[in-house]
Design a protein that fits this description.
The structure is a homodimer. The first copy, chain A, is an alpha/beta fold. Chain A is built from 12 helices and 12 strands. The first copy, chain A, folds into 3 domains: 45 residues, 434 Repressor (Amino-terminal Domain) (Orthogonal Bundle); 135 residues, Rossmann fold, CATH 3.40.50; 130 residues, Rossmann fold (3-Layer(aba) Sandwich), CATH 3.40.50. The longest helix of chain A is centred in the C-terminal third of the chain and has 17 residues. Chain A binds a DNA duplex through helix 2 and helix 4.
Chain lengths: 333, 333
DNA sequence: AACGATTGCGGGAACGGTTGCGGAAATAAA
DNA sequence: TTTATTTCCGCAACCGTTCCCGCAATCGTT
């Protein structure tokens, strides 16, 4: 099925060493004519180098694993596209695995990546408490690992993320400056660090501006479109007054907007809406959602830089990169 | 950095054959006690099997390559998620590569997959004329290849796609039954077969219903949101009358809707909008876009079935699977 | 002409597993 | 006890490369 260097060697009456050298473009140990001849016959015979054998021999796979919670949000797919764009010219390929927001899938797919002996792993975790020992063990064995976006506290490992606390703070202040006093928070799950950071920012902004914290304004029913809808419906049906909604992500915000509009509220006049984690989708709906956009390109750049550094210099110290994200004010606030 | 079976063998005073057999769970050739002992020490020493070596020896990588044009559209990411869900339990991993809608990237990434000796490739091509000899050669060498969604005519190779012609036909008839006579067609690029099929359906439906074909109603300015916007703007500015828009994909439809609403048209009263290739995004905008939704789950199932069959029985004849897609009528028509 | 340096190539041991074969020990059958 | 059959394990080849080492032929130098 496949031609090997031995086939070429036999065809030319050479040794496989020479063929290998000619094919890998090594200078000095093989005469130019022989090299040319070998390369030509290889081409003619349809030779394809068996990367498996090369990797086994060189003990390096030139592969980076990327483990993400999902691909539906364009954040991750864009991240992957950017990372590939940078890695490919450097000779690295990537292999993508999904955790589907499930810690068991995450573990299993992490194993899969590690089993295939990738040179490094870029991971965005689905739970900042789970699988921690596994990651420590990995780091201890000195295999390059870099967390991005959803990181884990306390690991001796490089990471890159945006400053969710600060961004949430600014987003909250934006709402407050618009005169909002009863801001509902559609929160994210507790097991994601970003979510906790945002909630903390929510609390802190309120207290900084002398607004009392009302727990009944904080809801955790789900981070998707349906979740946002249910949460707002809950507030309305229980007569809990609010004049703004601060969402964990944009799909929540969209769900919230839909319910509000259907019930006859005006956005942003009656109720303002703002969200973290915005992408182009935020601009599709009406009114377009004010959101904080994650600097996905820069995050990919940094993550790739960190993983490559760890590969080239395995003992370099961990680095924690924080990239500011940008607030885009749109019609909804 | 990594523990090998030889390390385990040395530690236990056994041969690597025995260790290998114990670890691979082979019955009968190794005593239960030895097996248990080996497995325990492997665990203790943190042994991870080197898949590379296994694959090299077994001449099989248990890996399926998936090559898609992009990941931004949720169609492809959903397809991948589904395919992985099915393949994983069967022991197959997947590696995802992007062509970025570019034939050179496609070629290069196809090579990459083939170089890494994947057991089969699932591909959605970005151009139905390009790289054809390469694919033929691949098929001739009897390496499993399955096209999905965007297929190429005339290759002796299994494929799965939805019936774009029929779906476009129904979508057009739907518009016609709604009394539309001047239907603009925001077409896709010529080099994608699906696009040609849809255009043909456009022509045929018109002729079936005795409506004259007007070339000035067919535009090809781009398949994204901006493209849709430009195209509709063009029609309006040149005073070309139309009462419906039939789009190649949903982002185009969204761009078109935005322009129409901004100019004061009512949808669907003044102008109806319908699109192929719809996803959840079609339901986010107002008015929600009537669209044909591709049966992504079924397509993934079939594609996986076909590639596995080709792997298990390399000589089985090519099969062309066509899965009907569903039209969802929404507010825009 | 004699001698070291360079060039071009082949031999063979890795890389980390799997697997067919053969043999010793243990067990079963005669 | 002898013979036949299992059971369990080791030996060594193999997958397709790379790369170190050694050797012969050619080259340049005095």
């Amino acid at each position: 099925m496949y031609v090997t260097i031995i086939d070429i060697a036999k065809a030319l009456g050479l040794s496989k060493s020479t063929v290998s050298r000619a094919l890998s473009g090594e200078k000095g140990n093989v005469s130019p004519e022989t090299a040319r001849l070998v390369i030509e016959t290889a081409e003619r015979m349809g030779y394809k180098r068996n990367e498996l054998a090369v990797h086994l021999r060189k003990r390096k796979t030139m592969t980076i694993g990327i483990l993400v919670p999902e691909l539906v949000t364009s954040f991750y797919s864009t991240f992957i596209a950017h990372a590939q764009q940078i890695l490919r010219p450097k000779g690295y390929r990537t292999i993508v695995a999904l955790s589907n927001e499930d810690i068991f899938w995450e573990k299993s797919n992490f194993d899969l990546l590690s089993d295939s002996r990738v040179d490094g792993i870029l991971i965005s975790t689905c739970n900042d408490k789970a699988n921690v020992e596994q990651y420590s063990a990995f780091i201890q064995r000195n295999i390059p690992l870099v967390f991005f976006d959803r990181t884990i506290k306390g690991l001796d490992c490089s990471s890159v993320r945006s400053n969710d606390y600060k961004a949430a703070f600014f987003l909250m202040e934006h709402l407050i400056y618009k005169g909002r006093k009863r801001i509902a928070h559609l929160a994210g799950p507790d097991h994601i660090r970003n979510s906790a950071d945002r909630f903390q920012a929510y609390i802190d902004t309120l207290s900084k501006h002398g607004i009392a914290y009302d727990p009944s304004l904080v809801l955790k029913e789900g981070t998707d479109r349906a979740g946002g809808a249910t949460e707002v419906t809950f507030l309305l049906e229980h007569g809990i007054p609010f004049d703004a909604v601060f969402c964990f992500n944009e799909m929540q915000a969209i769900g919230a907007e839909e319910v509000l509009l259907r019930k006859g509220f005006r956005i942003p006049e009656d109720i303002a809406v703002a969200s973290m984690y915005g992408t182009e989708v935020s601009t599709l709906v009406h009114p377009a959602v004010t959101s904080v956009e994650k600097p996905v390109a820069r995050m990919a750049e940094e993550a790739v830089r960190l993983i490559l550094r760890q590969i080239d210099a395995p003992l370099s110290p961990a680095e924690e990169v924080i990239i500011p994200s940008e607030m885009v004010i749109r019609e909804s606030s």
